[in-house]
Amino acid sequence: MRSLKNKIVVITGASQGIGAALAAQFARHKCRLILVARNKTRLQKVVGDLEPLCSGCLSLAIDITSLKGM
């Protein structure tokens, strides 16, 4: 399998469940993560846990189902 190191991965729903699990797997492969979720507190917890593992992490606490005013 080709290396995923430094590949950019965008995950929505990253603060819990499948999204958080996917983020953890990609972090272990040293990907650069863009994590999106509605709940800022839970998202920050996930980011804190994964930052030491990945090549970089950007978090966005937004609701992508309602982008009015953006």
Describe the structure.
The protein is an alpha/beta fold. It contains two helices and three strands; from the N terminus they run βαβαβ. The protein has a three-stranded parallel beta sheet, covered by helices on one side. Helix 2 (40-50) links the parallel strand 2 (32-37) and strand 3 (56-61). The chain is globular.
Proportion of strand residues = 15-25%
Considering DSSP H and I runs of 4 or more, what fraction of the residues is helical? 25-40%
**Which whole number gives the mean pLDDT?**
93
**Helix and strand element order:** EHEHE
Alpha-beta content class: alpha/beta
Number of E strands:
3
**Poorly predicted sequence stretches spanning 5 or more consecutive residues:** none
Shape: globular
The radius of gyration is 12 Å
Going across the biggest sheet, name each strand in turn.
Answer: 1-2-3
Tell me the distance between the termini: 39 Å
- Give the biggest sheet: 3 strands, parallel
Write the layout of secondary structure elements.
Elements lengths: L7 E5 L4 H12 L3 E6 L2 H11 L5 E6 L9
Parallel strand pairs: 1-2, 2-3
Can you tag this structure with a few keywords?
single chain, 70 residues, alpha/beta, three-stranded parallel sheet, 24% strand
Short note summarizing the structure:
It contains 2 helices and 3 strands, in the order E-H-E-H-E.
